[in-house]
Batch of 3 targets.
Target 1
Amino acid sequence: MRNLTIAMTGSGGTGVVALGEMLLRAAAGAGYYGILRKTFGPQIRGGESAAVVRLGPRPLASFCGEIDLLLVLDWSHFQRFADEIPLSASTLIIEDVAAGARPQQLASELLAREQGVQVLDFSGLAQAQGSAHSNIALLGYVAAWLGCDGEPLQSAIDHRLHKQGAEVVALAHSVARAGAELLQQAPINLQPPDAGAAAESPWLATGNQLAGLGALEAGIRFVAAYPITPASDALEWMAGRIESLGGRLVQAEDELAAVNMAIGAGFGGVPAMTATSGPGLALMSEAMGLAVASETPLLVLDVMRGGPSTGIPTKSEQSDFNLAVYGLHGDAPHVVVAALSLADCHYSVAWATQLASERQTLVLVLSDQFLGQSMQVLPPLPSLPFHAELSRASLPPPAGADYFRYLDTDSGISPMALPGQPGGEYTADGLEHSQSAVPSARAQDHEQQLAKRQRKLQSLAASTQWGEVSALPQARILILCWGSLFPVALEAQQRLQERGTPVTVVGVRLLAPLPLESLLRSMQDMAQVLLVEQNHQAQFAHYLQSQLTQAQRAGLPELTCYSRPGPRLFTPQEIMQQVEGLPRA
Amino acid sequence: MRNLTIAMTGSGGTGVVALGEMLLRAAAGAGYYGILRKTFGPQIRGGESAAVVRLGPRPLASFCGEIDLLLVLDWSHFQRFADEIPLSASTLIIEDVAAGARPQQLASELLAREQGVQVLDFSGLAQAQGSAHSNIALLGYVAAWLGCDGEPLQSAIDHRLHKQGAEVVALAHSVARAGAELLQQAPINLQPPDAGAAAESPWLATGNQLAGLGALEAGIRFVAAYPITPASDALEWMAGRIESLGGRLVQAEDELAAVNMAIGAGFGGVPAMTATSGPGLALMSEAMGLAVASETPLLVLDVMRGGPSTGIPTKSEQSDFNLAVYGLHGDAPHVVVAALSLADCHYSVAWATQLASERQTLVLVLSDQFLGQSMQVLPPLPSLPFHAELSRASLPPPAGADYFRYLDTDSGISPMALPGQPGGEYTADGLEHSQSAVPSARAQDHEQQLAKRQRKLQSLAASTQWGEVSALPQARILILCWGSLFPVALEAQQRLQERGTPVTVVGVRLLAPLPLESLLRSMQDMAQVLLVEQNHQAQFAHYLQSQLTQAQRAGLPELTCYSRPGPRLFTPQEIMQQVEGLPRA
Amino acid sequence: MLKAKQYKSGVKPIWCPGCGHYSVLNAITKAFAALEQSPEQAVLVSGIGCSSRLPAYLNSYGFHGVHGRALPLATGLKVARPDLNVIALGGDGDGFSIGGNHFLHACRRNVDLVYVVMDNEVYGMTKGQASPTTPEHWQHSKLTPHGPEVRPFQPCALALAAGAGFIARGHSGDPNGLAQMLFAAVKHPGFAFVQVLSQCVTFCPEQVQWKEQVHAESVGTDNPAEAAHFLHSDDGFAKGIFYCNPRTPWPLPHDSQATDLREGFRL
Amino acid sequence: MLKAKQYKSGVKPIWCPGCGHYSVLNAITKAFAALEQSPEQAVLVSGIGCSSRLPAYLNSYGFHGVHGRALPLATGLKVARPDLNVIALGGDGDGFSIGGNHFLHACRRNVDLVYVVMDNEVYGMTKGQASPTTPEHWQHSKLTPHGPEVRPFQPCALALAAGAGFIARGHSGDPNGLAQMLFAAVKHPGFAFVQVLSQCVTFCPEQVQWKEQVHAESVGTDNPAEAAHFLHSDDGFAKGIFYCNPRTPWPLPHDSQATDLREGFRL
Ligand SMILES: Cc1ncc(C[n+]2csc(CCOP(=O)(O)OP(=O)(O)O)c2C)c(N)n1
Ligand SMILES: Cc1ncc(C[n+]2csc(CCOP(=O)(O)OP(=O)(O)O)c2C)c(N)n1
Ligand code: SF4
Ligand code: SF4
Ligand SMILES: [Mg+2]
Ligand SMILES: [Mg+2]
């Protein structure tokens, strides 16, 4: 059950990110599970970059705080990643001879460490074959150590380089082989992680891709969006596929256009979405209110990054919670869902796609840069039972002259006619309206429609999809989290159990309407509840408190909140530390 | 101490709104205080309209639920105002002969009522003089009853009609006189309200105008905005005056431009603002985050209307609270202030103007259609000690090469250089940055700047301007409200006291950061706290709860929340009813 | 086959008596009758403004969206549902002020839509502020007491520079002519822009004079340079189809085989 | 008097080696030297994009705003602080896609600003998506695998139709010529638009060919119809000041006596 984390740093052109990707793929081919994170400086090209790969015998959905092995192709700018690649005394460091001067602050520390620094001539190996790619030599070397330098490594290289032609590929193979051979002379003083029996044909995917998959599989056939980091690659993945399903993706002139286009398509009965990040989401606020008021299905995926304003575009944070839950004008109830892992991007987005159609309203899905852009080896995902069209089709057809688009039904859901359907003609409206869709400023109509729009979401709070519970029988401590912290909390749970502290972990998928009963149930027998989230203001924690009555709150165990912003990823260790620091834990 | 409420209805062209305005002005000239509300249908011209005037011997800042006198020039569409003009058995009705058929639903009820319906020939009176303006005849009639048909009425007519030339004015005078004379033959079976000794030279103003006054007096010298109901008239008032102060107003192409223009001016050191309503505020969300992150002073006035989406543009509601407090992406602390009365539009906006400059951030002021567009007779407002430039000037000047724009000071406020100042050159940025304003993605810089931006607002929670407290010694019930419900709650307080139920009323002016200590202090000795607000989701009530720790909450009296949406105005009566319905009250 | 009147919904317009928008409504119903349009296959999409209230007065489907966004709403609908006849409409404020960017990009993108702007050179709905087409020295708004002091927008010239393939101007005083123009616009493949001079009698009573000022022009051309020349010397009162140069509407069809969405994830 | 280099801030640009934006930076410093610009009196205002990072590299005041809003930010600043030399700048995505509406209205409003668009026909910062000026069949973005299939924007023609009084095009391969153009743009009273062809070597390496394609033109005219004619037959690679027709910049001065703000409230 040994996992291991390998970090790679270099500056632009040294190809550490390519190294990370090929390494993960090769390892996966040899039965490893794993996860890869890439991190860049602000430069588009030529700047610093790093990759972190974690490998082990079971699916890995998070990173831990430890770096076991650091591979250095270039030391310059290493300090920029100091926060993200925390070295410890036991980190083994392997550097290329050409890596340049070690960073000042590190130099003395490095000499005094338990594990030394191993200097090897990867660039020389590459050069000897006429290649400038020391990263490939290093790849071969590490792959050999992992035992995946045969077919798995070859096909990882092929996959990455085949577009550059047979010669490039052949050269890479031979440079990699040279690297692999080096292992015999210069063994790595560290036991490789355990390889497992990976699934029949494991998948390699990013959360953004899986979000795209969830959307398309659940029936999204129209996408309009404006590029923004870190949402663009979800869009790019869909762009290459949606037309084969008979759908269309439009690159809009801005986010205002994108979201309104999606609303237009949704009105036409075609399940539609947009994807964006914080600044774009802010721009969509007005139109999201239109989807709510006009009761038009709309799916919005927000891949969160550091805020406020332009903030830290390439790093992860959970700080758009407030905007997502509260950021519309007027009383505008809508649904907010958070993806709980890379794989859950698939599930959450597919569910959300169905919900938008079924409830005829705005459904927002929160993902983040970590989920969206990390790449994971995972067992093939099951097909899901979520379908936007099906749920739409189950609505009663309009009944001719008596058709009331905004009929005040018990469920709050009214029959929605689609253009082309004779007898259903109506004008959707963001103005307050009567049941028959005629604009109205009357108190009675306003109150009726407000109540109806709220009511149609309430039953959702009881849906079984509300969240994930990982319960341990003796647990008296609950770790409550949402979104991408869930896998981190799960790992903390496992480690705590190893230390004899059983905790239960709940990851909330449905943020609004809040599944209060389920949450109260999960809290009721606990001595302590620890809320963790990745933002500065403890946004979810405040929201949770806002939803509790005085009586409910009085009946609860003590709530402790541990919240801090990005860009540093959350680690299981810091959650464990919080658990261990709880008053009576 | 008798107040009296007079409602007037007609359809377009009958001039009820003009009637209301002239009546209020004439009454003010005779020593009355009063308040006027106008209400329209969706038509721009020719539709239904109504005006409600309340008069009495003391300043009146709210309406009550009772209509004492209904003046009808035209019955058609009366039903559209049924919610807003609730007739009771004791309402006296006076109608013009030409008012047309009484509404079906009302007809039988009207006949069976205590007070009859008095039918008079105002149109005939006007026609006899060759005028089509029955409203002027009615004006003279009512003015005579109020005892203001002499000079006060004449100057009210002059004020309204002088632009139309001497002939029109003269005719109006004589039609009004004929109306006044009618009173002798047809007295009004109702005692007029008491007139008081109004202030030396009372003011007649709308809340929007007073907001404009507060802004300009506190130093706003740049306005950029896009027209929207019900904010436009605040802008129009300023447009006619700002240039005489050396400032400028720009009508922007949209709200995105407007808010960014204001940020540009604020960066230049010129106190700047924009004004809008819900849909426009939603569009400003992204740029408001820029003001927060770049620490640029920005004042945004939101005159709230019914939501969500286009909603009910001409009616009042307090439903933009969530958007105002939470509607930015990322962790984006800012200030939110709510005006507590028409007069307080002056105070709150002036204070907010200073705060924006002093704290170098976004300050949002919430007003609403009721405050903004009602017109009140009030004692002249004092000059206020709030000045945007002064507070800006008190900052230390930049210190040459060592100048750090975003210096992490104790107060959280950093010295802000202005373009033109040598040695202060820096680039303001919405990207996260170091103290020296260089973009940075480092955790350390992010945490430092997030904390600093939060810290610089915290001390505000203790400011004496946080709210208004109207305490009664024996009160064991607290009515807690914000914004335009404060005057209504004050009237409820007065009436409850008359009935032997003393209550204390707190109106919260500073919504964010929430003045929690002051609020807890005001709640501590109470048996019951009633929160009232005008929206569907009880937005403020949830927010308050979100800000309380478990311990604070446990120590509090029971909180009951009474929240309902517009468009109906809140009345003292309904608040009283809630108070009387409280569990142990 | 329906008569023009049968395309009305029965909802009473909120417009002021004499407002030009009534004629536009009539012209649309006439064009629909001529097109033998089935009501359920047409969708009228608008923003916010007096003009933007129009969809509710028709018997078709409609979407009364938010201010300035009629075109993206219509674009999304048409791309997703190419079987529908989608007509976007609104006012000069909606289309050229807050909606200006979408106007440019819709002209360029060339989706098969008709876009009707009822240009009254003013914001009617919000009580008479200047719009982008308001004359430079019009001083009747308190918001701009000296007038906008900015040159009015040239919607047709801009549409041409932005790439629109059909550009026309009508007048509400001539609903029959306008109906014919709308007929042609609907038939035109790709984006068709129709500016309609539609008076606001309440805030710009001087616009009743327009009926004396408009003059029909038969300048229809498919040459952009000619059209540009004409539109740059235009007095703003020419009536007619100025430019008509059809190209294949967007989105273009692509051959694409069925894909296994999950394929690429397998090692 | 400062030398060109002395206008740099010392912050190291994040740009890729070979990016055209370096030359634009140099051209600005050269123009500043020629203008004897005091650094504290100039403000560079930008949106978001590789190009929009430029202000931080200069020794002047700067504002790196949000995506697409450089022009309103600059407009507010200039109207409030007419004493400053305000230069707005950014990329083709920032200026013509999300910022398109502000571009139109800035041309029309004619505030005394310079607006420099570093046009590389791509979104550099977000890794190579199509922008409004991207060629119709450029298929190098995964977001538009068949290419945008939409005709590229004509920024100069649009600026003219929108009412800009100064319209020029430069090339990053000619920083001296560009510096002269910028000098003239700053001197021009009112809004001055300068499109700069500035290659993105990373996502459009083909743009290094631009240096062979550009050709200087001396078409400077103050006649809009002539300019329109030229710009409608332009191949996109002409270099020069195409149109220069100064008019009084906005806001116009008005006589206004001091007012008692409180006056109107008294009965
Ligand atoms: C986001 C937003 N901003 C402003 C408004 C206010 N508003 C409503 S209609 C309108 C202008 C309408 O003018 P136009 O489009 O010319 O239509 P007209 O009324 O003249 O027919 C404005 C500014 C709004 N509803 N939403
Ligand atoms: C509201 C918003 N939407 C999208 C983005 C993402 N974004 C950043 S820069 C950019 C495009 C930049 O392209 P361009 O202006 O041409 O500049 P270049 O990088 O090519 O110099 C985009 C789409 C953003 N930052 N904000
Ligand atoms: S205000 Fe003008 S545009 Fe609006 S309905 Fe009246 S006349 Fe028509
Ligand atoms: S990505 Fe392109 S535009 Fe951006 S810095 Fe690199 S070369 Fe320049
Ligand atoms: Mg208009
Ligand atoms: Mg670009």
Note: The first strand of chain A starts at residue 4 and ends at 11.
Target 2
Amino acid sequence: MIRRRKEDERVHVAAELVGNTLVIRLQGELDMHTVEEFKHEAERYLMDKRVKNLVLVLSKTSLIDSSGVGAILGRYRTIKERGGTMIAVGLRPVVKRILKLSGVLNVVETAESERRALARL
Amino acid sequence: MIRRRKEDERVHVAAELVGNTLVIRLQGELDMHTVEEFKHEAERYLMDKRVKNLVLVLSKTSLIDSSGVGAILGRYRTIKERGGTMIAVGLRPVVKRILKLSGVLNVVETAESERRALARL
Amino acid sequence: MQAVPQDKSRAGRIPENEVQLLFTSKPENVGFARTAVALVASQRDLTVDQLDEIKVAVSEAVSNAVIHGYRDTSGMIQVDVKLYEDELEVVVTDKGTGIEDIEWAMQPTNTTDKSRMGLGLSVIKEFMDDLTITSRPGAGTRVYMAKKLAPASRP
Amino acid sequence: MQAVPQDKSRAGRIPENEVQLLFTSKPENVGFARTAVALVASQRDLTVDQLDEIKVAVSEAVSNAVIHGYRDTSGMIQVDVKLYEDELEVVVTDKGTGIEDIEWAMQPTNTTDKSRMGLGLSVIKEFMDDLTITSRPGAGTRVYMAKKLAPASRP
Ligand SMILES: Nc1ncnc2c1ncn2[C@@H]1O[C@H](COP(=O)(O)OP(=O)(O)O)[C@@H](O)[C@H]1O
Ligand SMILES: Nc1ncnc2c1ncn2[C@@H]1O[C@H](COP(=O)(O)OP(=O)(O)O)[C@@H](O)[C@H]1O
């Protein structure tokens, strides 16, 4: 029996360490419900003290609301404490607008692709 | 601006004539609403009197309810009048069950693939 | 299957989730209703087949309310969804024409509309684990259906 | 933006479609609500961006009902969707705590919950064309929002 992925309600968080940069690929919709999963997974990866920078790949993130923005800013704070840089990649237009409106894009850089983001760090 | 295809509510009907066999590829969900589009498009292609057989490709048909079954049987009647054969291809398990329950599979054959269906005609 | 006026008793059982939909009897809302019910159902880890079965059953009951319940008129259709640990309950209610003879209507191929096949209720019976219809001619129809689910696995 | 008790008058205008959702104030229903509203909206030929904007706005209003309206309690949230020829209206109602000072709440960064950013209502203002809040402390909150749509192209 094929079990379907509950992508609409759940986020899926995948991560990879490239040097001292953590790359998090976020899939799904980030709201007050799914944000718990994102926070939990991101914190687990950030426990690794080698992590200085964070590249957040949002090309498969279809929605972020203000609860999601809060969670992203929380991760930014951790990176800032470590003197690192955070770059967001692959923003859909409406995701970009909410990150701009909320001031996230004043502190988090954006890049066209994961490769370019990594090249900049 | 990217306009999204309203695939969930609309069916999409594509057709191709292979010899005297009409191949109809049906995409979407077939219910009392979308069935009108299916009937209309299918009848348009069936006006071509060369058409004797019908291969109905359902691999992208995610749902058929009893209104949809009625519309499929209607097309079968046209084919039968012409002395032709109708073959359904690519049935999802639940689509297969409703076509069986309704007796459609007593008169309409099934095949694993479009290629095999055409080879049989 | 008997048409009894009471649903299976769920006394003392509290649903894990409860959603109600209320919408006008338009053909395009049949798709809305089945997808919305599937959205609630998919808060549980179901198979594609289970979701398809639920969608088809909801499609039949809501289509009946549009086609037979409100016939050439128009009215509101209510869909109540309750998600229990081991069961999904869906109740589709209309305030339309009602059914004269429920037992007759439940038989496959019986229909009061010659353009149709009389299969909708049989399809619901096939795809759900419980089906109970209550109806009063001139007042409306209530179709209760339930599907057993594997208990939610707690992470 | 003033918090006036009346919506924009729609006297004499009949919606093309009308759907109501009623559900328990659970976090997982925020996703259900925005997707269900988007399902109705997508009966019209909208852009992906318009649908995303509607989804985010609904997400904010329903989240507020869950987080602020019902806080540590639980209750029912009602979402009324009306699809007009040139506009989508969504009204989110809860019977929760209510808002003491609506004008204050509408200002960006103002929040009564320090764990939050006070951005939800600003996001709705940004993504919808109309936002009107009515509320009575202890009785509940009603968030009316509307988005202009291009008139439906008749085939
Ligand atoms: N909601 C309803 N309101 C009034 N009559 C109904 C309703 N649902 C079913 N019926 C009656 O029951 C009959 C059988 O229904 P069904 O098995 O779904 O087949 P069909 O829709 O093809 O007629 C219908 O023809 C109709 O007379
Ligand atoms: N449905 C509601 N019920 C009670 N209070 C609300 C509701 N919606 C908004 N509020 C109040 O308005 C404030 C601002 O809301 P908002 O801009 O969405 O930001 P946030 O949710 O981040 O606090 C909230 O902190 C809360 O005090």
Note: Residues 2-6+16-148 of chain C form a domain with the Heat Shock Protein 90 fold (CATH 3.30.565.10).
Target 3
Amino acid sequence: MFAMTGQTIDVDALRTQMQDPGAGGFCVFEGWVRNENEGHTVARLEYEAYEPLAVTEGDKVIAEAQQKFPHLKACCVHRTGLLEIGDCAVWVGVAAAHRDEAFLACRYIIDEIKIRLPIWKKEHYVSGDSGWVNCERCAS
Amino acid sequence: MFAMTGQTIDVDALRTQMQDPGAGGFCVFEGWVRNENEGHTVARLEYEAYEPLAVTEGDKVIAEAQQKFPHLKACCVHRTGLLEIGDCAVWVGVAAAHRDEAFLACRYIIDEIKIRLPIWKKEHYVSGDSGWVNCERCAS
Amino acid sequence: MKTITVRYFAIFRENAGVGEETLETDAATAADVFAATRDRHGSSEPLGHCKVAINDEMADWDSSINDGDVVLLFPPVAGG
Amino acid sequence: MKTITVRYFAIFRENAGVGEETLETDAATAADVFAATRDRHGSSEPLGHCKVAINDEMADWDSSINDGDVVLLFPPVAGG
């Protein structure tokens, strides 16, 4: 299940939802707002998203992970709005029978989420400037 | 930092300790007690450890991860004693500037913890039998 | 000529100064819409870095444009 | 002859029926101690699947044994 939220991500509640007596490995990735990007000191971040399509595409990414690695529980929640340093911008959790699938599926989901979903990030710098962040794939 | 504990692992407190304004990626792995192993229905698990050396070796594993991937915060806590289905047996958390190091260091730590530390796992089956679990590397 | 709605997001919206506008166009494909509105969205990004959706479905740049379509122009995404 | 302390863990401890014992031995290496106590720890595991520590330091099977050493015999580990 993929969701967007304008509120603080409740990581405890998400972890509880992932529990499963058949799961032996649980892998989580969280993206946190850093105080620095490419030499700029960041004050805060702003996420804009086109939610209807972000949710459709996010659900598709999770379904793909579940097809590649059957029998896993997977969930991702992404923030919108204004975020401060240290805030959790995205949470991905995968519970699987074994750790290998848990790690690989978690990595697959965050990698695809970052390049496929209509979500944009504007950095507000301590200098007063701001800028839209280029996509990872564009930079590489 | 590596620690062994006989108490429920406090995953919230551990997550809070990992927070760092320079960290953009946080990867966690948790090992959970599964209800099944190699065709046996598991009722509970018992961990035995030789703690002085488990801690020394665990700290060494974390130091190796920090050398491979500089500037990361990493922590691992492992349970001892009797655990029920769904209990968290081991928690590994890594906070790094970027997600790649976070995933790789987290994976390195759990992989090494499983094969190097003097920790043993006895499965108690629903059938009333019990058995010591063979090491991963021995099985492969 | 067709009548379509074009929606801009993030830096495209800021550049265009509006989130949405109605266009009369003879654009055959999504790429034509991107080119026709380049002055509005102000993008110097290669097309391959941007994305397009038509009527709330992700689309390709060579997807055809029909009368009444809502075309969403997405600058380079950066989730996570 | 040397006097050493041998400690057994997990299945080795269960097989030996004791966690620790004192041995008079002429064992030259840790591997010799493992072989000399095989009846006690009852292991059919290859040496390479087991581990040994001497005086609270991880050691190799060809590490030499000195009078007064505490030798810890570890069956195949299974953390996590």
Note: The longest helix of chain B spans residues 51-68.
